[in-house]
Amino acid sequence: MSGNRTFTMIKPDAVEKNYIGAILDKINAAGFKIVAMKYTQLSKENAGAFYEVHKERPFYGELVDYMSGGPIVAAILEKENAVTDFRTLIGATNPEEAAEGTIRKLYAESISANAIHGSDSDENAAIEGNFFFSSLERH
Ligand code: CMP
Q: Rounded mean pLDDT of 117-135?
C-alpha cells in the first residue's frame, strides 16, 4: 500500500529566483496539503548527511556545495499516493527531460540546480521528513 505523505525541498536556485510562491501554488493546485514547512539553510555537514546515499557518486561534492549554498524551503506534503504523484508533478531529475507543465520543466536550470526535491519512496519520505521536522513540531 502506498503512503499519503512525501517530503520536498524547494532548492536554492528556485528560492533565489523568487519561485517559492509559484511552486507552492502548483503543489496546492495538484491536491497536496502542506502539513509542515520551514525556510532554512543547510550547513555543509547537514547537506552531506541528507544526501549520504549519494556519497559515492561523482556529483556528491557539487551537490553538497550547491544545497548548502543558499536558503531552501523544506515541507511535508499530504495526499493519497503522495510519493508517486509528487514525482509526476515535479518531473524528471534532468529538466531537459522533464515533461511539459512539470515544476522542473517550468522552473529548473540544470540537473544540479533542479528547483525541487521529492522523496523517491515512502521509507525515504519518512526519513527525510524526520531530518527536518520533529514529531513535536508537526502537531
Ligand atoms: P534530487 O533527486 O533531489 O536528489 C539528488 C540530486 O542529485 C538530484 O536531485 C540532482 O539535483 C542531483 N544530481 C543527480 N544526478 C546528477 C548529476 N549527474 N550531476 C549533478 N547533480 C546530479
A: 95
Could you give the number of structural domains in the chain?
1
Is residue 139 assigned to a domain?
Answer: no
For 9-38, the pLDDT digits (tens) are: 999 999 999 999 999 999 999 999 999 999
Instruction: Indicate whether this model's pTM tops 0.90.
Output: yes
Q: How many helices (H) and strands (E) does the chain have?
A: 8, 4
Average pLDDT over residues 114-122: 98
What is the atom index within ligand 1 of the atom nearest the CA of 116? 3
Instruction: Name the residue range of residue 110's domain.
Output: 5-132
Is 117 known to be catalytic? Answer: yes
**Who lines ligand 1 at CB under 6 A?**
54, 59, 62-63, 93, 111-112, 114, 117
CA–CA distances in Å: residue 134 to residues 52, 66, 126, 129: 20, 25, 11, 8
* Closest residue by Cα to residue 95 from 108, 78, 85, 81: 108
